[in-house]
User: Fold this.
Amino acid sequence: MVEIRHAADRGVAEHGWLSSRHTFSFAHYFDPEQAGFSDLLVINDDRVAAGQGFGRHPHRDMEIFSYVLEGALEHRDSMGTGSTIVPGDVQLMSAGSGVAHSEFNPSPNDPVHFLQIWIVPSESALGAPPRYQQMHVGSEEKQGKLRLMLSPDGADESLTLRQDARVYAARLDGDEAASLTLASERYAYVHVAQGEVTLNGIRLSAGDGVKLRSETSLTLTDGKQAEVLVFDLRGRETPRMR
Assistant:
């Protein structure tokens, strides 16, 4: 079963310095039909003005994944981590027992466009020590194929996620195609970060998302400067919060 979540149907938050689109319920936006999917709780499509950002604030027991599409994002946290990520960088912060962080656009002139994604950790990981991971994935590693970025076991040089979930990224243009086989009990979510692409015969544009249930595979084709994230998830409807 395939369920499309069109970009125009997402929640909207406009704060002057921040323009955000919420795939799932977040902050003041609430839709009982969009309360996450499997262990995927948040996909926020954020654009932050030059010299602005999210001040220091706390989290606990959440896997927080940042993926920059344009510009740069400066990260600081209570673990002593300091880093600026740009397109191609993959950042994963496991909040665990508790961490405070800030995310800031260091550019004096240019906005930053990035995805903020939250995945609920496994019950066995609740209260674990917080940690930070980062790596760079070049465009050539994602071009025309699905590159594993996050996994529970760190397979294929991916970052280690505290949940039974896998996150892939792909860039597709022209006649390139990328496929993923899905186990019968698994769900999947596809988010089009940029451009246009066809998923199992369905044409999608930037900001569109698709929930897949009881599908054996997914295939991405006919990309037009497309960048896509694919989530391989447990077969459950909504995240179970602590």
Q: What stands out?
A: The radius of gyration is 17 Å.
